[in-house]
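Review session, final week

We close the course with one last complete record, chosen because it touches almost every idea we covered. It is Beta-galactosidase, a protein from Dipodomys ordii with 655 residues. Go through it on your own first, then we will talk.
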Amino acid sequence: MGSLSCLSRCLSWKRIMAVFFLPLALSGLIPHIQYGEYMLSKTGRPQSRYNWSHLTPLKLKNRSVGLGIANTGGKAAHFTLEGHKFLIFGGSIHYFRVPREYWRDRLLKLKACGFNTLTTYIPWNLHEPERGKFDFSGNLDLEAFVLMAAEIGLWVILRPGPYICSEIDLGGLPSWLLQNPNLQLRTTNKDFVRAVDTYFNHLIPRMVPLQYHQGGPVIAVQVENEYGSFNKDKSYMAYLKEALLERGIVELLLTSDSEDKVVNGSIQGELAAVNLRFLRKNSFLQLRQLQSNKPILIMEYWIGWFDRWGYRHSVTHVKEVEHTVSAFIKYELSFNAYMFHGGTNFGFMNGASYIQKHVGVVTSYDYDAVLTEAGDYTEKYFKLRHLFGSVSAKPLPSSPHLTPKTVYPAVRPSLYLPLWDALQYLDEAVKSVIPINMENLPINNGSGQSFGFILYETSICSGGILYAEAHDVAQVFVNNIIIGFLSDKVQKMRIPKFKGCQLLRILVENQGRISYSWRIQEEKKGLVGSVSINGISLKNFTIYPLEMKKSFFERLRFATWKPGPESYLGPAFYKGILKAGSSPVDTFLSLPGWNCGFVFVNGHNLGRYWKIGPQESLYLPGVWLHPEDNEIILFEKIRRGLSIRSRGKPKLKLF
Ligand code: GLA
């Protein structure tokens, strides 16, 4: 989000009204304001302090009713849990964005802040990285995460998609779906349905025993995500509902949409919830039209926002959050803070937006949330804890200790390996007459390449105007010499004259697939379509999928790394040792002088760095460090810097 747009957004009269006057309106000073004709509690105060201490997953043994709705005839409807009046105070934490070793810490902080419910998306693309190959282990162990939440005393709402948005690559849909030109995402198209059914056959049986009625903490399940904004197929939501029911989901189902799309996204008979940042007069207008007899649930209260490369860091002020949450509490509105703790888009997880061009989401998913990216407390945490504490009959649990951070000695990578020398260590190279985009490469058991970089090589015997459609950005080389750049917006460049026949190399970086809008259907990466010079198509390519998997780095150990030069232009790997002492803790890495690339520590991909900001450091969780020596490998696309610095705090660029 750009600085100016943020400024104008923050200063627009609607915002000022929303932030400063609506709370006044709510508090009764302007008595006749209604939310889309929902008359909120007249007194403007919760009737009592809530005592839900017996209503926690481990304590509540009698499980006959679950999350229900009481329509009290005339008065506002409210949720009940096992018959007791209940408000959902939810917070989002995504297990896949937080190192597993820190799940407990983050969940304890959610509970200690006063929340009673955890919400999480479930990302299909990470759980089924190759068609038919499922992964629910390690950091993707959804069941362990949910059971840990239960043990800590939190209820859970699951959001299994299959599309989730969430600023993740392709909104959580696996990129191999894009191979099939007849498959239409987010519809009842038979090929899409077949893929969803197979995934659900693996996922849903894992969710079923976690449900409330089976003694677990899951009180509700969300169907898809903001389908009202996409809404291409009227039968799709009904199909998904049925897909959940027939596999044994029995808890309350809900849909979740922005204020003006609630009706479009809803399923007849199921609870519709709303996503918003500000309480406005019309916030609940559509909800009211649809279900005046049901309680309000704000499924995503945007307590912060995400960042994109090259755009100003987003900030949502604590005062605004305090005002809005006070209103939620005062008027007994159930809500879910998106995000309580955002975590990190480790590896190649990040998605992208389209703002006249492709713009990648940054590695950090700090989100200006209640906890920071590294799990530290913010002012929002203390304000919310105070608000929840003021309506809780029992004292809130004490807040866990801070997670230590430290500064390690700088690392000067002493060895380097130009990309060209590393190619022989790849799993495989593909020979093809024409260039092939990532998703359609015949690798990974037919599932193609999802993430990373891809290099195309072919021989050319003349210069001229090169035409290629590269997604998202590409460096063009003749042999080892860089001669220009291409992107989704720049498809032509001149190749100067040269003698004889030479090697044309095009290195394309996938910067994350768009996660929102109809564009998801078109998100193929690498070179898409033919490549030509002066209108004549080039042929006979060797294609190197640079997926940067652990196995590749293991093989790179046997490469002949060279002592690092003071400066090098071009894509290369750089290796150094981070000395972490006897008990490593969290730190942040900053990369002065480096341009753009990825950092791998002991084989963990920390994500993309890019000098354009706003993110200027990468979070390195202490749990991924070994005592003493740790291997750091950088893949830098353009220009080397001299050192990698460690910091105690993240660094942001101020635009
Ligand atoms: C929407 C989506 C979320 C997320 C937020 C923005 O509400 O439902 O997945 O993308 O926007 O962070």
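Two points worth writing down before the exam:
The longest helix spans residues 190-207.
Residues 164-167, 225-226, 275, 300, 306 surround alpha-D-galactopyranose (CB under 6 Å).
Good luck, everyone.
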